[in-house]
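Render this sequence as a predicted structure.
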Amino acid sequence: MKSLVGWLVLLMIAVAGQAFAASDADQCKDLYLSASYKEAAIPCERAAGQGDVNAQDILAWMYDLGKGVSKDKKKAAKWYRMAAGQGNANAQNNLGLMYQYGQGVPQDYKQAMKWYLLSAGQGDADAQNRLGWMYDMGLGVPRDKKEAAKWYTLAARQGNGNAQINLGSMYRFGVGVPKDYIKAYAWFSVAVELGFDKAVEFRDLLMVDMTPSAIKKGEELSKEYYNMYTK
């Protein structure tokens, strides 16, 4: 009987602990979403320590930007790594970013590539664009413009404005893809519609080399792209 009682007590403690952790995870998420970062810090720390992947990603972001806690890139990298190791695509992308620029970890382009690939493979558009840039510039891998264009295209089709600008530039100059002013114009225009002001300059410079007929076709294609890839 005593052993049964002891077992029941342990079971109750375990269940209570799980409920507490779940409560911390919920509080962490809710306070984060309401931008109550200082209040989120404690439940996020507890939930992250219990292994909650979303809390780990949130806590990493808080340390990364100094939201509700003192900015600490090393702690940010630590928690991004924990969440990334559990397959969180956002954390994988951000950990790749830290390795690319040497923030909180030693700069290491190969490690950046590793994490970008994992995140991009899960469909993270920002990681796909960054992966395209790594191939474009030859950072951590041999320069490969076709591979860069591939990843820019995947990100652009998910509505990533930076990727749309990068892809538009590749079409303009025929790098990694066949030269095509109409497609370049279309991608620049979609980025403009999404609020990426720097795309205006790229498009304006391109228009100097385009005929009125080509510009009209570019406008028509940009509407197709916008409807296909931004809604």
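Summary. The CA atoms of residues 126 and 185 lie 22 Å apart. The first helix runs from residue 2 to 33.
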